[in-house]
Every structure is written in C-alpha cells, then in structure tokens.
Write a sequence for this structure.
C-alpha cells in the first residue's frame, strides 16, 4: 500500500498527497463534486459548460494563458465532466507544481468577477459544437436515451453532461455566476498531489494558495438520488429508433455504482463477455446463432447510486431485433462460468493487474484515482484496498456479477432499425 498523507483545510478542502520519489513529475487533480446531477431545471449542461469556462481567463490570467503556462513548461492539462463531478488534471515537472496551485487559486477566486457575456458566449459556442458532433455520430443519442429510460425525470441521472442545448444557449452571465458560486467551493472539492514532492512542503503550498476561500454555501441541488432508479416492473422498458446505420440493439443495464467492488467486477466480467473474438456473447450470438457481427460493452460511471452499462449488439443484415433480444436473454441465462478453465480467470486477473499498475505508474492517473476516492469512496486508501480485493476475485464472484446482464425491470432496450435515406 502506497504512502498517502491526508488533510482537510479549515475551509473544507480535502487534500491528499502521495510522494513518489522516483518520479520527476507531479500530478495534481482538482475534483469538485459538481456534475450533471447537480443541475436544476433550466441548468442542464451547466456543469460541462463550466469545465470550459474554467479556462476562459481572469483579469490576471487572460483567456488561454492558463493552458499556455502549463504547456510552456512541458506539462499537460485536461479536464472532464461526469454526472457526479468535474475534475481538472495537471502533470508538470516537480519544480512547477506550485505554479499550478497558484493558477487554480486564481481562477477559483477571480473567475466569477472576470466572466462577461462575450466570454460566456464564446464557450457556449464551443460546447454547442461538441453537442453537434455528438448528434452527428452514428447512434450518438443512444446513451442519452438509455439514461432517460432507466432514470426517468426528475431523477438527477435522467440527463447526461453534454445535454441538449436549450438551457446552455439561454444561459446568461448572472445564471452561470450563480452556479459557480454555489458549486465551485472548497467544501465540495478535493485536490490530490502525486509525485516527487515533500509532503509537508506540498501541504504548506496548498494551504498558502487555497485556504483563503470561504467554504461556500451548504451543499444544495440533487445531493441524494432515489434508491430505485429504474421505471420498475419485471420487464425492460423499450424504445425504437431508425437510421441509416442500423440495425443495432442497445441494452442499458443498471449496475453497482463506480468505486464499488461490484462495479469493478462487472467491468472485469465484460471482458469475458465481449473481449475480442473469444467473448462469450460473441460466440453465442455470432458464431453459433449468426445474429451479430460484434458485441461492445461500455460503462458510464455514475458514483452516487447505480451506474449505467450499455451492451451494443451489432446485428447482421436481416436479423430480427426482437429475436436478437430473446437470443441475448437466452445466452446470458445459459452462461456457466464455473465451466471456465482456471487459466481463463488467471489471464483476466493478470490483465487487470497490468492495467492497474500502469495507471498507478502515471502520476496523473494516480492523482485522478485519489481525488475520486476521497469524494466517493472510503478515503485515499480505497484504490489499494479495491486492488487487493479484485485480485481475490473468484468465478463465484463473477457469476454474481453476471446477474447485472440479465434482462428485467432495471433494463432499457433500444431497437435501432435500418431506414433508407
């Protein structure tokens, strides 16, 4: 287990420092518990918009200067928004990490004062282009549709971060400033620092730059999600679409939330079900039944209640989608993981171990995991505890995870039929 130092500033900001003496780099991840689930009616898309606005500049650090400062010293910076949080990840040389803290302090303290209608409008156009790109991609609406079917409004997971543009395009300076001052506050944030730093000096630097902020208002918005996210009943909720890219069958599944052992084991099982030409579902539905050419499984990692998994079945021309849905249900029901050779599980766990260790060797990836662990798991030691538990996974554990892939009332099925232009 790695050495981790944890501290909470007087304003509520949680700080995690993991020294790695062998690394010449430092990763810093600032994560705020604000995502699409915190958006009220009329604010859909605001969390993702602010991922962009955070780089729009202040009076002291103009638009573009934040990223330029990091790139000038050979570092990199990126950001992302999920249903539950927004995070900003920097990787720089160890001599430059305090400059990153200064930049973060600058925009957290002064961004609201610097925002104007022109700056907000500029970033709205950037977000709009991202939305247009999504809508133009084959099946670009599927994740959004599945989420709305599994988590009907007003459930906070009913919409995703890159939401339809109505609310964002109507946003004003005053409305986005109100969102910022509510959610971009220390009491809703954690910062993780990983790399060649002295823990005491690093904590002193964080305290110097980031302690001079008030904790902010009490958390508000959609802080708690309903215990039952699905529409209920014993059968999946269904929808049909048509397009020139069909036919496809998409199955949305409610699975354990991100950051839990159940979630990680479900992801591990997905590699057995759809991992290359040897995937169990590809064998059952492709080679045996001649219904599909490919099977893909992807995850949206909601962390506060139940996460979302989407199984994509690429139907062969002429395949009936209703028959394919029935064949999928039969295939999952017939899978007997106890018949797998022990070498199959050993190989699966070996791949997991390799991926986990590669991510741990990246200071940015390690910092990202630590900030998530502080906000959504049991603390900064959770990733190591999870790793140890995952390596003890048995076929019985994976059989339990297989239940997540069965069709039932906590599923959504989208039949995407082919339609000529």
């Amino acid at each position: 287990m790695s050495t981790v130092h944890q501290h909470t500033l007087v304003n509520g900001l949680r700080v995690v420092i993991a020294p790695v003496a062998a690394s010449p780099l430092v990763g810093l991840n600032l994560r705020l518990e604000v995502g699409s689930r915190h958006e009220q009616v009329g604010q859909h898309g605001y969390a993702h918009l602010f991922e962009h606005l955070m780089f729009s500049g202040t009076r002291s650090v103009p638009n573009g200067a934040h990223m330029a400062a990091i790139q000038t010293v050979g570092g990199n910076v990126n950001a992302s928004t999920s249903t539950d949080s927004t995070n900003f990840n920097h990787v720089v040389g160890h001599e430059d990490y305090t400059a990153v803290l200064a930049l973060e302090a600058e925009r957290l303290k002064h961004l609201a004062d610097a925002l104007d209608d022109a700056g907000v409008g500029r970033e709205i156009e950037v977000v709009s282009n991202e939305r247009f790109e999504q809508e133009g991609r084959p099946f670009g609406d599927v994740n959004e549709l599945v989420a709305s079917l599994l988590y009907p409004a007003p459930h906070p997971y009913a919409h995703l971060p890159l939401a339809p543009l109505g609310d964002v395009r109507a946003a004003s300076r005053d409305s986005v400033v109100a969102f910022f001052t509510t959610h971009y506050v220390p009491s809703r944030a954690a910062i993780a620092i990983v790399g060649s730093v002295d823990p005491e000096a690093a904590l002193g630097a964080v305290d110097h730059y980031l302690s001079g902020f008030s904790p902010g208002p009490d958390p508000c918005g959609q802080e708690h999600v309903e215990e039952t996210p699905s529409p209920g009943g014993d059968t999946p909720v269904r929808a049909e679409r048509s397009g020139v890219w069909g036919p496809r069958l998409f199955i949305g599944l409610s699975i354990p939330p991100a950051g839990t052992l159940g979630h990680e084991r479900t992801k591990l099982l997905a590699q057995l079900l759809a991992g290359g030409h040897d995937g169990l579902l590809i064998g059952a539905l492709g080679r045996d039944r001649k219904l599909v050419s490919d099977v893909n499984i992807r995850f949206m990692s909601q962390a506060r209640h139940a996460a979302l998994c989407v199984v994509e079945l690429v139907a062969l021309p002429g395949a009936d989608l209703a028959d394919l849905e029935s064949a999928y249900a039969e295939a999952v029901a017939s899978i007997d993981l106890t018949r797998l050779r022990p070498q199959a599980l050993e190989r699966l766990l070996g791949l997991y171990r390799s991926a986990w260790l590669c991510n741990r060797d990246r200071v940015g990836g390690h910092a990202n995991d630590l900030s998530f662990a502080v906000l959504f798991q049991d603390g900064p030691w959770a990733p190591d505890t999870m790793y140890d538990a995952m390596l003890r996974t048995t076929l019985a554990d994976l059989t339990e995870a297989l239940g997540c892939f069965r069709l039932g009332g906590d599923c959504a099925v989208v039949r995407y039929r082919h339609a000529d232009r």
